[in-house]
Amino acid sequence: MSFPGKKVCFMTGASGKLGREVALAIAGQGYSIFFTWNSSEEQAGETLEQLRWVSPESQMARCDVSKAGEIAEAFRTFGHHFGRLDLLIASASNFYRTDLLEVTEEQWHSLVDTNLKGTFFTMQEAAKIMLRQPFLSRMITMSDVSAGLVWRNFAPYTVSKSGIQHLTRIFAKDTAPRILVNSIAPGTISAYPGREEEPEPGLLEKIPLQRLGDPMDIVGAVKFLMESEYITGQVINVDGGRMLY
Ligand SMILES: NC(=O)c1ccc[n+]([C@@H]2O[C@H](COP(=O)([O-])OP(=O)(O)OC[C@H]3O[C@@H](n4cnc5c(N)ncnc54)[C@H](OP(=O)(O)O)[C@@H]3O)[C@@H](O)[C@H]2O)c1
């Protein structure tokens, strides 16, 4: 089934905390959403239910993005539902602490294959569709300010996010002028609806704007990039100035 008149977004990781808020905001901009989830079936179902209030034709599919074959399969399913692709949001990600001298091969795979390899093959599949289309399309990758910092005990995660920022520049150059490719690097985002969290001790002192990020701060950056026509290959830090330290 195809919706020629309505813009379409393919998004990975919309079952995530921030991911869901981004997906809902994009639907609110008049897009149909096709999103993937991996292990959180219940959260994915809730996301789909909320999306369909705004965008009834939205769809979801299970996909482990650490496996290129599953990404290709998700795009085949996408193709059965939608006839165009205007926007890719590559948000699927794993995040956990790994002590440098004790990182296992399994942890390396679960972090780097999900975050970096998964983003690469998702972008590759999206580009194959977008480059065939007669209109400008966009990709937004989700990285992290930690890509430009040296955090102790997060080596596979931060390396994967640095890699995503470099992939962003590579795809931006190689797919220009047909696809605009940018990355959003959030700082610590914490104010999810219905949840109050205390920031970790000392964190606010490293943030010049003296608060943690809100999902709406990220949504604002996504909307900005969805409108922009002359920005590509950039990383936008949405971090309250965290990178100034
Ligand atoms: N929230 C923050 O403070 C923050 C800060 C910096 C950067 N970011 C980045 O912003 C993005 C969105 O964050 P978030 O808060 O939504 O993250 P999250 O709550 O941790 O959600 C992670 C998402 O990635 C998906 N995922 C994990 N492993 C996967 C796999 N192997 N295959 C497919 N999907 C997989 C999860 O799906 P399932 O649960 O269904 O498996 C979930 O939808 C991420 O890229 C994150 O790194 C977030």
Largest sheet: 7 strands, parallel
Euclidean distance between termini CA atoms: 50 Å
CATH fold title: Rossmann fold
Q: How many helical elements? A: 6
Q: Kindly state the number of beta strands.
A: 7
Per-chain topology:
Layout: E1 8-12, H1 17-28, E2 32-37, H2 41-54, E3 59-62, H3 68-81, E4 87-90, H4 105-130, E5 137-142, H5 155-175, E6 179-186, H6 215-227, E7 235-238
Bound molecules: NADP nicotinamide-adenine-dinucleotide phosphate (NAP).
Q: Mind explaining what this structure looks like?
A:
- With 245 residues, this protein is an alpha/beta fold.
- The chain has a single domain, classed as 3-Layer(aba) Sandwich (Rossmann fold).
- It is 41% helix and 15% strand.
- The chain is built from 6 helices and 7 strands.
- It has helices at 17-28, 41-54, 68-81, 105-130, 155-175, 215-227, and strands at 8-12, 32-37, 59-62, 87-90, 137-142, 179-186, 235-238.
- It has a 7-stranded parallel beta sheet, sandwiched between helices.
- α4 (105-130) packs parallel to α5 (155-175).
- The longest helix has 26 residues, at 105-130.
- The mean pLDDT is 95.
- Bound molecules: NADP nicotinamide-adenine-dinucleotide phosphate (NAP).
Write a brief caption for the model:
This protein has 245 residues and is an alpha/beta fold.
